[in-house]
Specification:
Layout (H helix, E strand, L loop, with lengths): L5 H11 L1 H8 L1 H9 L6 E5 L10 H11 L3 E4 L4 H4 L9 H13 L2 E5 L7 H6 L26 H18 L5 E5 L12 H15 L2 H8 L29 H29 L5 E3 L1 E2 L17 E5 L20 H13 L2 E6 L17 H11 L4 E4 L26 H17 L10 H4 L3 E4 L2 H9 L8 H13 L5 E4 L10 E4 L7 H12 L3 E5 L21 H4 L1 E7 L8 E4 L2 E14 L4 E6 L8 E8 L2 E6 L1 E3 L3 H13 L11 E6 L2 E6 L14 E4 L9 E5 L14
The structure holds beta-D-galactopyranose (GAL).
């Protein structure tokens, strides 16, 4: 086992990966410039003037400003008022609301109303609605039920967006735009979707032979003789037997492309009419795989929506009321690197109405999420919504103020308190500051691909496989070390990160395998896991040994893989401990020079390797082929990879996150247990207290940090 001196490795990491620290210091400063804002993070709240009596608008908007918010957000669902009749626009009401917001001192974000078309549209043109997987045409009354491929709907959207942009594009009271709302969530099997899919396939394959080759038309007579025959693969109707996995993969890609083009088209229209300092974004549904923010070209930055408490209980105990632990952490890591600037466009203000179970967030949780978003580098944060609705579909959804329209709710009070505490700190923060060297040394890239995710979901091979939970397990393991983490894509520069992890990266081209090799040879530490490299970029198996492109890289052969029913026993041994597994087991035969980290304890492959590691050039490659029931072994092996590389890591319980921004350290606790980190000597706590209680945040300044390397916080 190689264990170079910490100092040597730190120095090497800072030389080779110097750009990681530099880059990590910049995005927040970039956000403020892009958004033309004074404050490092702007706070806002959604307000729907059309839902309240006109006589209350001024009181409400003044109230929002008095609480300390910087901006408000309007109009995203108000198409019926913006275009009350086909082709007749009415902006008078919105002009008035914007003027009241402006007088109160609030900037305004305008939403485009594409998610909620008016009744006249459905009445006259029912084809604007999507057709679901059972062939049912949807109809007016709820949102996001439209067909994004329907030319008539697209024309209506283009027209209303153009009208809004012409009216407000030069209005200095309008700060920026959010196009659509949580775009692209539902599958559409309408005729227009089918025609659009055929057009997309024509662009991609040119002719039907190319498609038959990739989709495997020779299988079960599924071959087409013309692209016009191609159907939208409907997995719901084909539950008994299996559709071509390649057709399903193309469908997922097509849907993501359609949504991206829809967003880009709206952004382009706004930019045609608006001043260049009005920015354009959308509010993605957290990290959903129905959309792909990297496919859009015209948005200035990304924002996402965040509702951590809606019935789940990931860490047991009271964690159901603190929130899904990986939620905000992953979303920030995923959206931040795309443009370097991101925001939380909707943050849960209190109890919601749409979960299976809708518990109250624990005291402190709302405030902790806000601190966490700030610590993760968000440039704006907005909460959904100001007033608690008295009627309508979201009646049980809390707001910042309660049902009387004026009194802060309990969680609204927490929101406002956290907002003021952050505003007080912001003046002292330096968003151009560089990440401390000890943190930079463990910076980790998490390789992510929509193709790989979709492909795993299309062919999971065992009902125990859950791609999302699998991914969460590894992000949480990485974050337990106190590492800064970014999601990266195959085209990105891996060398910016001393560590790169690519869990279950099933589709591996020769080019990617070569890129990984060069990364490790230059000093990077690569962590691969189960299922990696089984397929090529088309989603076909490699014609050769199992996982062919990664074998030289991991220094092992993959003899095959196994999975077990819950009733069977499977164990893996590592460091004298046994871990139960059922989900997945890559059976590894190490080649000379490769070290075995874990071994299967039973079945015909007892004694074969379950995890290995090897040096490669100046770096290393670790392969974790088993997915254990509780993930404890994987967490340990991930942590060991940092240690073996001689990099100091922290030991944070699952759901405790350590982030750094602008000279301050932040720690938040989604775990139902308290935690006491060992702060560096002389550290000064500026917010919160130790031990860190569940649903709380603590912020400190490290006396040793002067913009240069400092000692790590804990062993
Ligand atoms: C979001 C959505 C909002 C609102 C909110 C309620 O997903 O974008 O418009 O419905 O949920 O929690």
């Amino acid at each position: 086992m190689f264990r170079p001196l910490l100092a040597t490795v730190l120095a090497t990491a800072l030389t080779i990966f110097g750009t990681a620290a530099a880059a990590a210091g910049q995005p927040h400063a970039q956000g403020a410039a892009l958004l033309h804002q004074r404050e490092p993070m702007s706070f806002g709240v959604f307000y729907y003037p059309e839902q309240w009596p006109r006589g209350q608008w001024q009181r409400d908007l003044d109230g929002i400003a008095r609480l300390g918010f910087d901006f408000t957000h309007m109009a995203e669902f108000s198409w019926t008022y913006l275009e009350p009749e086909e082709g007749r626009f009415d902006f008078a009401w919105l002009d008035h609301a914007i003027e009241l917001a402006h007088k109160a001192g609030l900037r305004v974000i305008l939403g485009t109303p594409s998610a909620a078309p008016p009744a006249w549209m459905g009445e006259r043109y029912p084809e604007v609605y999507r057709v679901d997987e059972h062939g049912q045409r949807h109809e007016h009354g709820i949102r996001a039920e439209v067909s994004l491929t329907n030319p008539r709907y697209r024309a209506f959207v283009a027209r209303v967006v153009a009208a809004m942009a012409q009216h407000y594009g030069h209005d200095p009271r309008v700060w920026g735009w959010q196009v659509d709302n949580e775009p692209g969530s539902f599958p559409d099997f309408s005729d227009s979707a089918r025609r659009a899919f055929q057009g997309w396939l024509r662009e991609k394959y040119g002719n039907v032979d190319g498609l038959n080759a990739v989709w495997s038309g020779s299988f079960w007579s599924s071959r087409y003789t013309s692209l016009d025959q191609v159907l939208l693969p409907n997995a719901t109707l084909a539950a008994e037997d299996k559709l071509s996995p390649h057709a399903l993969l193309d469908l997922a890609r097509f849907q993501a492309d359609i949504t991206a083009r829809f967003l880009d088209e709206q952004a382009q229209i706004i930019k045609k009419y608006a001043d260049p300092d009005q920015w354009v974004t959308t509010n993605y549904t957290n990290v959903t795989t129905a959309t792909d923010p990297r496919r859009t070209r015209k948005l200035d930055f990304t924002t996402f929506t965040l509702y951590p408490v809606a019935g789940g209980n990931a860490l047991g105990g009271d964690s159901y009321a603190i929130g899904r632990p990986a939620n905000l952490m992953e979303a920030a890591a995923y959206f931040r690197p795309i443009t370097g600037t991101f925001g939380v466009m909707e943050l849960q203000p209190g109890q919601v109405n749409w979960g299976g179970i809708n518990p109250q967030p624990a005291p402190g949780a709302v405030g902790m999420w806000i601190w966490h978003a700030f610590a993760s580098g968000a440039s704006l944060l907005s909460t959904y919504r100001y007033r608690h609705p008295l009627r309508g579909s979201e009646m049980y959804h809390e707001g910042i103020v309660g049902t009387d329209g004026v009194t802060l709710s309990r969680t609204g009070r927490e929101f406002v308190d956290a907002m003021h505490a952050i505003k007080a700190l912001e003046g002292k923060l330096d968003d151009r500051a560089r990440l401390p060297a000890a943190m930079a040394a463990r910076s980790t890239g998490y390789l992510w691909s929509h193709d790989v995710f979709w492909d795993l979901e299309i062919q999971p091979q065992t009902t125990l496989w859950h791609t999302w939970a699998y991914r969460n397990g590894y992000t949480l393991a990485v974050k337990s070390t106190g590492a800064p983490m970014d999601f990266v894509a195959e085209g990105d520069d891996f060398d910016r990160y001393p560590f790169l992890i690519a869990p279950a990266y099933q589709m591996v081209s020769e080019a990617l395998a070569q890129k990984w090799r060069r990364y490790a040879e230059r000093g990077g530490h690569l962590i691969l896991t189960a299922r990696t490299g089984q397929k090529n970029a088309l989603g076909h198996f490699h014609e050769g040994p199992w996982s062919a492109p990664i074998l030289d890289l991991i220094g092992a052969d993959v003899d095959g893989f196994d999975m077990l029913p819950s009733s069977a026993d499977g164990n893996v041994e590592a460091g004298g401990k046994r871990h139960a597994w059922h989900r997945w087991a890559d059976i590894l035969s190490p080649r000379p020079g490769t070290e075995v980290l874990a071994t299967y304890a039973d079945h015909y492959y007892a004694g074969k390797a379950a995890a290995t590691t090897r040096r490669l050039g100046k770096g290393s490659v670790t392969m974790i082929g088993v997915s254990t029931d509780d993930g404890a072994l994987e967490r340990q092996l991930v942590r060991d990879a940092y240690r073996r590389a001689g990099v100091a890591i922290e030991d944070l319980p699952t759901g405790v996150f350590h982030e750094w921004r602008g000279g301050y350290d932040f720690m938040v606790d989604y775990n139902p247990q308290p935690f006491s980190p060992a702060l560096p000597a002389g550290a000064k706590i500026v917010h919160g207290q130790l031990p860190l209680a569940p649903a709380q945040a603590v912020v400190w300044k490290d006396a040793a940090w002067k913009g240069a390397a400092r000692k790590d916080a804990s062993p």
